[in-house]
Sequence to fold (556 residues):
Amino acid sequence: MNNNKKVIEVSGLTKRFGNFTAVDKINFDVYEGEIFGFLGANGAGKTTAMKMLTGLLSPTSGMALVAGFDVYKQSEQIKMNIGYMSQKFSLYEDLTVAENIQFYAGIYGLTDKQIKEKTDFLLHKLGLEDSRNELIKSLPLGWKQKLSFSVAIIHDPSIVFLDEPTGGVDPITRRQFWGLIYEAAENKRTIFVTTHYMDEAEYCDRISIMVDGRIEALDSPSKLKEQFNSKSMNEVFIQLARKNQNQFV
Amino acid sequence: MNAVEVNGLTKYYGEKKAILSLSFNVNDGELFGFIGPDGAGKTTLFRILTTLLLPNEGYARILGKDVIKDFKFLRNHIGYMPGRFSLYMDLTVEENLRFFASIFNTTIEENYHLIKDIYVQIEPFKKRRAGNLSGGMKQKLALSCALIHKPQLLVLDEPTTGVDAVSRREFWEMLQRLKEQGITIIVSTPYMDEAILCDRIALIQNGSLLDIDSPNDIVAKYKKRLLSVETSLKHLAIKSLENYEHKVSVYPFGDSIHYTDIRNNFETADIKDYLVSKGIVDCKVVEIEAGIEDVFMSLMKEREHEQ
Fold:
């Protein structure tokens, strides 16, 4: 962090589906190089909010700038200037390691020369040189996750969105993955991440917690624990998410 | 009696071994957890136990019956909730439940007492199609459908994956109540913090068991001294400890760092002094008890060295 350059600016952002308000006037900013944790219970509106921020869904009202681009009018520029990785959609199982890298680099418009350089660089960095021509489906899950993250930032975006990137991953690989996240943030890349692992919430610089379409809390993990008089982020989360709890959850 | 008895169970997919000579028992009425990451072999094992997949070697007996020979009997007495939501999206909540009841020759009314606690929470939406339910509601419907024929054994494959911390806690409360009704439950999860909610657990990785015991006994076997380091300069502290000559492992753990040392004879002050010398002045170093996740990572490393 340590700087005030805003990479995401959100004000009064709202999305309604018919009578249902999925995201209700949310406000927040995310700064360059920040690791921003975006938490909330299932159905709280996280996915809808992320879709608006990544240019996949047009808001009903409110304002949002991502990497300096307007979510209403410049969704294509947003897509070119952000990285995105989710647990569900990552790599093509029937392509090799090198083919996946080349594919993503091509999609993002890198030149042939850049693609060749990036491919060699990534294979070396991830220690995958020997697996270059192996199909993705033959790789262990942990390696796939690391490679997914690397291809998500292959076009050097200022911000990368990670949607539950570590679900189901073993505890050692999960921590190695966070090593990659820290490294990217040190290189001034902004990280916007969702997770259900509350220990990972502690690794973020700041966290927002969504409840029923609104942001109910936003601060650093230590300040949030102080504010809610809790020992862990898990306790904070349970206090907040239970606040409005009813049988519909 | 053992509700589940497994011996030398092995399954290959082509050349690849999914599970490797697994042996274990689950006692009657036990809440038994398989803890391990994706790809560990949990789903393969569960599909064999529920008679949906044939093993290559070894045997498994459920409720005293063989999973291959007695599959027809067993299917009537096992409730299975697969990892992937597999109810009928185009049927309503009530239609799904009635369908499952009728294929097992029973009715919702006959076994309503078993599902009441869970089903009342989704009953207001019984006319809604399953495809339009939220994640938490789908999970409750799937559990109701797995229970409606009054199974003696309930097999739940990662019921809490992708589920938020609050719903996860509620789900485990439901499992506790089912256990009190005498149903044996086998459940798998990638979340280490759920392990302590089971009577006994098996830690599973790469198709093999790392350990099997009660959560307390598993933790008690951890003999290393474990230190917790807290500091505002967490990232710098991790890097410094990684380069410390005596370190064995350094892992971030929520707001602290867990550290183990190659020596047995050392003071927590040694670690603190080292960190201070690296400019990390505000650190707190204390010795702590290990948790399941510490044990799991330690066993994972040991296995890697053996191979």
Notes: The mean pLDDT of chain B is 93. The longest helix of chain B spans residues 165-180.
